[in-house]
Amino acid sequence: MYKRRNRNPWIILALILSAIVFFDCGPKIKSFTPEEGPIGTEVTIKGSRFKSNPVDNTVTFQGVTVPAADITFASTTMLKVRVPAGAQTGEISVKTSKGKGKSKTNFRVIGPVKWSMMIYMDGDNNLEGAALDDFMEISDEATSAHINVLVQMDRAPGHSAGYGNWTDTRRFQVQAGDEPDDPPVMNLGEVNMGDPNSLRDFVEWGITNYPAERYAVVIWNHGDGWRKTMEKTMKAAEAARSSGMMDTSCIVKSICTDDTDNDVLYMREVQDALTAAKIRLDVKNNTNVKLDIVGFDACLMGMIESAYALRDVANYIVGSEDTEPFDGWPYDRIIQGLVANPSQSPGTLADLIVNSYKASYAGSGGITQAAVRQDKLNNLVYRLNEFVHRANVEWATLKTARMNSKQFHPAWSPSCWGTDLWDFADNVEQNVASVDLKNAAKNLKLAVEDYVVSEEHSADMSGSNGLAIYFPPTQVEFNNDPQHSGYLETNAFMPVDFVKYVQWDNWLQDYYSNIP
Fold this sequence. Notes:
With 516 residues, the chain is an alpha+beta fold. It has a 9-stranded mixed β-sheet, sandwiched between helices. Strands 1-3-7-6 form a 4-stranded antiparallel β-sheet, with no helix packed on it. A 4-stranded antiparallel β-sheet has the order 5-4-8-9, with no helix packed on it. A hairpin with a 2-residue loop joins strand 4 and strand 5 (64-65). Helix 2 (128-141) packs parallel to helix 7 (331-340), helix 7 (331-340) runs antiparallel to helix 8 and helix 9 (377-390) packs antiparallel against helix 12 (435-451).
């Protein structure tokens, strides 16, 4: 017969408490500094219950053990160790004979690569030839152990037959001498580049597989500012392009058209894709890192609405207020400058892009390009809201100021209504009598100057100062814009954050109601 054994509950409790005490005797990690660095970085770990003899502590970085010789200092409350070879981003642990303690946050291991530049090159449209040319510009210069240049290229049937005439979507780590028909890192098959998940996946792939100290994402294609949907104007586009060098996008109010899949990236989708990539990478790596640069090699993207959409994911934005030439950015000059100085800061690289762009079109007209610094955006929005609060007098003068300000309104896209924000504020300041409004306009100008950190334009683009804002001249033109509903707070399809959270759209309606 089974005989039940009596157990004294006090004995059981004592055993449990003993186990708790035993397991609680292990090391505790309270903090470590710095929070990131390359292999060999000395990291100071603070906590308790460490061993004062270095060899009695086993320290690991994401499971990779620090050699005893690289524990350079040890006390019961502090350890100084060097990040071991082979370490990857992850938790730090300290183990002694009494147990094991882990860090609450991850140490970020930074490799010798200084920059990873990811170019989302959507050539599945009438820009396929330009995509191939830009790939070759990159491969002319992309030789450096400190730089990754990653390209996701989609091609289209029926445009350019060169380099194997493939029409699917491929990922490359471009090296010097590479050509578009060389074996890619990945062949994805046909991918819809107008799907935000495609952009998100590319960014996550690039950062995960090609870690670097800094990251730049370039979105390459047609563009049209903040707008929300697609409207094809192929005949006007082709006619304009055949008459000059300007990139006359057949896609209005979007970026990244994919002809094979008949889709585009709305600006809201760009925002959502990059935000999702950041959140997923932050969760995976226990970090809170923004992209250092987001660049738009596309027309008409240098607008405050577009920059505002990326306020939480990027430190710098580079884009053009006006249309871009068909050849777009000069990647040979940009990559050459980056290879020559791989340790350059994000601000320096943004300035390099802007100046290289201007230099590559020396003597040409219709050129604008600028870089903005996102940590100055809140002040700019504050000053803009302050301005519209004061701009409720002298309506006739405000109308004249608007009409005399630099406009970005290409003939082939009559619904584009970009106005240079600094130029408008300057015209207001110089002409209104109201002291309050004059001061508000001056403060708005200063905020734009602080926000735009690099700006270049050709001689014929006087009045360009790096940042445009949506500003149709009258209520009629606003209503005639087929996508004007995107600039209403009632719009629920691909809503524009700038419209939801900034007061400019409300002031526009007051302006239209009061101008003569």
